[in-house]
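Reviewer comment 2.1 asked that we show a complete input and output for one of the modelled complexes. We chose the zinc ion case, as it is the one discussed in the main text.
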Amino acid sequence: MAEQRGGTGIDSTTIKDIVRFHGHMCPGLAMGIRAAEVALSEVGPHSSDEEVVTITETDMCGVDAIQYLTGCTFGKGNLIHLDYGKNAYTFIRRSDSKAVRVSTRPGAFDRSPEHNELSAKVRNDSATDEERSRYKELRANRTEAILQASVGELYAVEKLESADIPPIARIHDSVACAGCGELTMETRVKQLEGRRLCPACFEAALSRQGSVESN
Ligand SMILES: [Zn+2]
Ligand SMILES: [Zn+2]
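Response of the prediction step:
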């Protein structure tokens, strides 16, 4: 791959595949592509097994590009979601514990006031046809700008000294829930009055008791 001073280093065929995987092209997906490039260059390559772990602090569009490009997926246990609502990712290579965290630079992902206004109108269904197409145009321009920017303009990249390396995914035994009877991974089962319950039945039993606390 030729060295890129700015602009995505991901080829257009791969980008098409990522768009197919995600369902559409959008600024969030473009941000995910750019973050994944850091993973590939700093701790890569694509993880066919569990050698690379991604900790994602968002569950929005960008994660799909991360999954596609890094090979870190929920099913393999090497994609861990922290529900922080930040477009930030930590990539860890297990073999030598090399780890980097990328976080969106303040301002890098901001939309223009016009874009924000149109976005609100589209969301509440009050946009005219012209406003809709202008919105699409602004979105496409923004996506393109993200793909053309240098990674450093979009993200702060920080090397971590000692990352907490999550344990390799293990297969746990399952037990039948005393409420619904469904097999539930043992580590997720909760005890209530001597009954072993799945999380859903546990929550339901608690709210029936009227003792559910907001948390
Ligand atoms: Zn999207
Ligand atoms: Zn149950």
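Residues 12-108+149-160 form a domain with the 60s Ribosomal Protein L30; Chain: A; fold (CATH 3.30.1330.20). We note this here for comparison with the apo prediction described in Section 3.2.
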